[in-house]
Amino acid sequence: MSIEITWLGHASIQVRAGKTVCYIDPWKIGKPLPRADIILITHEHYDHYSEDDLELLSNDATRIVAPMSTGYVTDVVKPGQRLALGDVLIEAVPAYNIDKNFHPKENQWVGYVVTLGGKRVYHTGDTDHIPEMKGLQADIVLMPVGGTYTMTAEEAGMALKDLQTDHVIPIHFGDIVGSADDALRLSAISTTAVHILQAGESYTLE
User: Fold this and answer.
1) CATH value at residue 53
2) Which domain holds residue 96?
3) For 22-40, how does the pLDDT look when each residue is reduced to its tens digit (9 = 90+)?
4) What is the 3-state secondary structure (H, E, C) of 21-87?
C-alpha cells in the first residue's frame, strides 16, 4: 500500500495510509484537517505538544501517544517500547542532544518508527546524531536540519549514513530556527534521496 506523507511545517507531519490518518507533533495547523486516528507527540516543548492543535485534530476515538502524561494523552511510552494500535505498530526510540542541553537523554523523550501500510516511517524527534540510530531501518526518515536545538544539515547527513533508508524528508526548519537553505545543504551532501517539501506539500511512497 502506498502512504502519503505531508509536511505541515516545522516538525509537524501527517501520514495517511488507506483510511488511517496519523499526525506527528502537530503545531500551528491553523485550518481544519481530517481528524486523527492516532497522534504521536515526541516531547513536551510547546512547538511539539500543542493542546490547541490536539483539540483541532482529535475526537473521542483518537489515540494520543506521548512520553509524558497529560489530560490529553491516552498512551504513555518510553524509549524502547512498542505499541500496536489496530494495524499500526508504533516503536518509541530515543531522541536527545549530545552536545547541548535542550533535550537531555534523562528526559526519555522519543522519536517514533511507525509501521503502517507496510511501510516504516521514522520521525526522529528533536535529536542529535545519536548512537541508537546505527542500523535502524526505515523506508523513509523525517529528520531535522535546522540546527541550534537539533542536528544541522551536515550532522543529519552523517546520521543518514548510520540509517538503513532510501528516502528522507528534511523537517524542523522554516520556523523558530533553520531555513530552506538547510534542507538544500542536506540534499547536496546526501546519497539518500532527499525530498524537500513546501509546507502543506506531500510525498507519496509507493
Assistant:
1) 3.60.15.10
2) 3-205
3) 999 999 998 889 999 999 9
4) EEEECCCCCCCCCCCCCEEECCCCCCCCCCHHHHHHHCCCCCEEEECCCCCCCCEECCCCCEEEECC
